[in-house]
């Protein structure tokens, strides 16, 4: 074991070793020669120990050090101790890597790790089966050279990893995968691949069920409304109880009919997918019509202001966009108290996108509710929504309609001050016609 010595102790030890040589040399009359002989002997001993050290480090396979003299014994022991510590760290690290790989192999999802140049660093067995990768043959190959789907390559190029990507399976056309990319360390990314085929099938079953039920309910509701209107005009009963019951039946039938109509609209939008018929739309004209309808719905209780660019048009589906615009405008009227202000704005942003916004001075929305507003049937205030006739489907319709136009609903709100609902159309859909002066 190494013992720390002071300079005085080292000098004393050297003098103690040198003393016999000095005394014998002095007695024989060869003091200088004896001193040189002592120096050469010391140098030779150190050189030999250095040679043993080099041979042990570079040529011997064993980790145990050879025997050494003096201070070299401490040097050998120190190196040996350091080697044992390094070996333990390597073993611990290897065990950690093995546990990580075993854990990754046990995951139900495919995992691929690639570096900043998109070269594959590692993948688990499920990823090999799902993506058709071959390990270790594909190690070091760019992932976009192995998965050559344009949407996947665009996803990597855009680096918009906050949203997952759905792609068809490269190995089975009947399966659909969800791709998520997560940063891993400073220069690596993890691709997580999940099979969502069953989820999509269940979602499609739900959509079909809602569409079928809504369609089947439409006819009996129409019949009920017809008979209620007929009894109102031709029935001779004039009692308060009957009038109240008739009014309630009419209101609830109308409410149910509106709900079914919204469900049918939502189902139609969902069934269409992204392949919708596009045409150039005069959004300014549409918004002016909706503003007049909003004034009629308001009944003079609100101030409705418009700031609309008449030259700004977009490519879109007329039915879906009218539904999106009208839901947002009419919601502002329904949820803004009397004497409140509603501002409808349609303009071109500095980035070249077309932006629509409707701002109100209503009751506002608690931030906790905002992430869920576009869910089907989600309502912030059940009592108030029931009074206004809302079913919690309007914003869900807006969400799906905007998705077909590469847009997303943005919501900002402050309780007691009002809300702003807005969205932007990408430059690829914008058409602007400059009017002659």
From TrEMBL:
PROSITE patterns: HIS_KIN. Keywords: ATP-binding, Cell membrane, Kinase, Membrane, Nucleotide-binding, Phosphate transport, Phosphoprotein, Transferase, Transmembrane, Transmembrane helix, Transport, Two-component regulatory system. Residues 212-429 form the Histidine kinase domain. It is found in: Cell membrane. Pfam families: HATPase_c, HisKA, PAS_8, PhoR. Its EC number is 2.7.13.3. It catalyses: ATP + protein L-histidine = ADP + protein N-phospho-L-histidine. Member of the two-component regulatory system PhoR/PhoB involved in the phosphate regulon genes expression. PhoR may function as a membrane-associated protein kinase that phosphorylates PhoB in response to environmental signals. This is Phosphate regulon sensor protein PhoR. It comes from Psychrosphaera ytuae. The gene is phoR.
